[in-house]
Amino acid sequence: xxxxxxxxxxxxxxxxxxxxxxxDGTVLRSAVREHVVDRPAPGQVEMDAAVWWExxxxxxxxxxxxxxxxxxAVGLSGMGPCVLLTDADDTPLRPAVLYGVxxxxxxxxxxxxxxxxxxxxxxxxxxxxxxxxxxAKVAWIADEEPELFARARRLYMASSWLVRKLTGAYVLDHxxxxxxxxxxxxxxxxxxxxxxxxxxxxxxxPPLRWSGEAAGTVTAxxxxxxxxxxxxxxxxxxxxxxxxxxxxxxxxxxxxMLMYGTTMFLVHTVRGLLTHPALWSTVGALPDTRNxxxxxxxxxxxTGWLRELxxxxxxxxxxxxxxxxxxxxxxxxxxxxxxxxxxxxxDPLARGVIAGLTLSHTRGDLYRAALEATAYAVRHNIEVLExxxxxxxxxxxxxxxxxxxxxxxxxxxxxxxxxxxRATSIGACYGxxxxxxxxxxxxxxxxxxxxxxxxxxxxxxxxxxxxxxxLYRDLYPASAEVAHALAARQNR
Length: 492
Description:
Elements: E1 3-11, E2 15-22, E3 27-34, E4 46-47, H1 49-64, E5 69-78, E6 84-86, E7 96-97, H2 106-125, H3 134-144, H4 146-149, E8 154-156, H5 158-167, E9 172-173, H6 174-178, E10 184-185, E11 190-191, H7 193-199, E12 208-209, E13 214-217, H8 220-226, E14 233-235, E15 238-239, H9 240-247, E16 255-260, E17 264-270, E18 280-283, E19 290-295, H10 300-309, H11 315-325, E20 333-335, E21 353-355, H12 363-387, E22 394-398, H13 406-415, E23 419-422, H14 428-437, H15 445-448, E24 451-455, H16 459-490
Parallel strand pairs: 1-5, 5-15, 9-12, 16-22, 22-23
Antiparallel strand pairs: 1-2, 2-3, 4-7, 6-8, 10-11, 13-14, 16-17, 17-19, 18-19, 20-21, 23-24
Helix pairs in contact: 1-5, 2-3, 9-14, 10-12, 11-12, 12-13, 13-16
């Protein structure tokens, strides 16, 4: 007799991942499809939505064909917030504009702050306008591509586009909407019509649901394409980092999730509405939850860049070399702002810096410096989270960067905080699978994904990193003017 199972798929920045999971949480199969984003101009990061659907279909086919399991529900998540505009026939009008790694909307942010009031935006929406704000990117398309924008009728993100293709439903989850600043009222938990009508005229904004609610069921056409059973439910889905937090049980007040991926993301669950100009305040993926969140523009993207420069050695080899380098990377210090920086710097024109280079430095030193730079940025974000009123009681790590052990150990040493690692660290696709399972059973993440180990800081290393962290904090203001001048040259 075949098992009942759920399918979870996440559309990420550098890959799409899928899992087939039994209703007790056992991973039966997993698969990955790697892809690259498009960078048509400095500061612009896009992706063709056709790739999202093609990779979903491919993953679904691979994971279900020949499996001794009956898929009974589908879970989804995706990078976000993104802006995918379609016409009235749901034909995409242009590639999707991606989340905060895309920094094109600087002028629109300045204009909207002046027209609507920066403080009023933060009061109503929970966050200030930044490169993360989807609403500002809608405004960019309206300004820069007016003929195209005049044909726009609907707004999608990665997960909601898959929902549309699978079920025909036009919906978006509350959490994703709360990152569409300034279109969403975070206290009222609905679209804010006066600003939506002003910024997105003619666009029918999607009805809102919670991430784990059923958006609809798989249509006959989608069933033929994907191999999934006709009529099974599909969740509404959410942004990948929030699904990732659910995948490791980091969704209770006091929890902080660290997502080690192409970018580093931090999601702190709080009891009430908290705001800070250098963070994002959002509604949570689950009803009656709220979050303070932060995100770096690069983390794993920098280590991947270094790996490519080094001739693509294996990551185990690079980790071994970084281990040999030791704390402090033999006097190297890096700012990981290779694509600008999101929180808490909020500077799209920031740039990467490697300070202290000599002819004696090695690949291991550079790789170690990149890992340490991410850890310093995590500490910076944590300090601002707590300054904003956050109460961090537990840190849970997840994502591909947790493999190998060195990166998580460096982060614990730099921050002085232990990190929990769960048995399964597949990430957002597993969180989506959990939400799908909860449509048909009483699945819980503690039963699905128990604690595997706790990474604890080493006091001697922490003391050494305290001094280096001070130098890290000094390096950005000391180099920002030069970085901005160089960024201006790059953007010409």
